[in-house]
Amino acid sequence: MSQPPLIDASTRLLVVAPHPDDESLAAGMLIQRCLAAGGSVDVVLLTDGDDNPWPQRWLEKRVFVGAAGRRRWGARRRIEVAAALGRLGVPVDRLHAQGWHDMQVTAQLRHHHEASVGALRAVIERVSPTLVVIPDLGDRHPDHGAGHVLARLALHAAGSTADLLTYMVHGTEACAPEDLIVPDLDPGRQATKIAAVQEHGTQMVLSRERMLALAARPERFDRPAVVAVGDTLRLPWRPGAMARSRLRVLLADGQGARHWTWRSAPLERDGDDWLLALRPVPGPAFVKLTADLSTPWIFDRYGWIAQDPEPVGLVARPVG
């Protein structure tokens, strides 16, 4: 069984949250434990959660939500995250809000790679964290997967040696429950975490039961598997000919983001599998399939895969 990270007065914790509420759901107990030990906590908020129309329609009694309405909703959720962090003991000046658009973190990575990685790198260099908590790469919400990629690239660009934790909110963990460790079961910290989650009142309107169930789960951790390194990456997906006609292949590494139609991507067939040629760039590389289609389904079908020559840190996955 893996050992939990050491938390003491020297710990500088940085939590990366794609949306308001992720900071509390993913690391509410870890944040409290770090502060109780005399350490410091900073939170990077990637989006203001401005594209969550159903609770907004319910609360505002409107059907159409335009750009002004999304800004208004994002401002409301920014207030909520500040209140939640206050419950956990984190002052508002420790919140580093990027203001990117909800459901658009993949687009942010794809079209503004240098600026986006640079923004996170600036926070990392300012905070100099010893422990970093980011979304799990396998999380099915596209903002979470892209948030992982951006954070990993920024950590590499900054030369960070911090321990790494990741968390799963949307999806199922790949590791066996018996391989997980439970670093904190303190009932007082659990109650404070639930109170922090309840500060996100907009999310309680239509999803109260789900949110409280997520908040009640223990924060657990395991260690990542070593990923083989080479000049190609074997894709785990086998899309059919019709799907391939609509798919794009997105590669993100230390050199930037590159995307192709399936037909123009540097792919080779190996039996039933496909191999993607990688660029000779130091650090991790990440690959995703996307169809660029407008759909009400928000979760990823394909998700991301990674090649990492130096997997470091831990993987944190809260499980039921």
CATH fold field value of the largest domain: Rossmann fold
Principal-axis shape: globular
CATH superfamily of the largest domain: LmbE-like
How are strands sequenced across the largest beta sheet? 3-2-1-4-5
> Which segments are poorly predicted (pLDDT under 50) over 5 or more consecutive residues?
314-320
- Roughly how many Å apart are the termini? 19 Å
> What radius of gyration results from the CA coordinates?
19 Å
Q: Enumerate how many helices there are, as a single number.
A: 9
The averaged pLDDT comes out at 87
> Helical content, roughly?
25-40%
The CATH architecture category of the largest domain equals 3-Layer(aba) Sandwich
Molecular structure report:
- The protein has 320 residues and is α/β, with parallel strands linked by helices.
- Helices cover 36% and strands 22% of the residues.
- It has nine helices and 14 strands.
- α1 packs parallel to α3 (67-88), α2 crosses α8 (201-216) and α5 crosses α6 (142-158).
- The longest helix is centred in the N-terminal third of the chain and has 22 residues, at 67-88.
- The relative contact order is 0.17.
Provide tags for this entry.
Rossmann fold, disordered C terminus, 4-stranded antiparallel sheet, alpha/beta
In short:
The chain has nine helices and 14 strands.
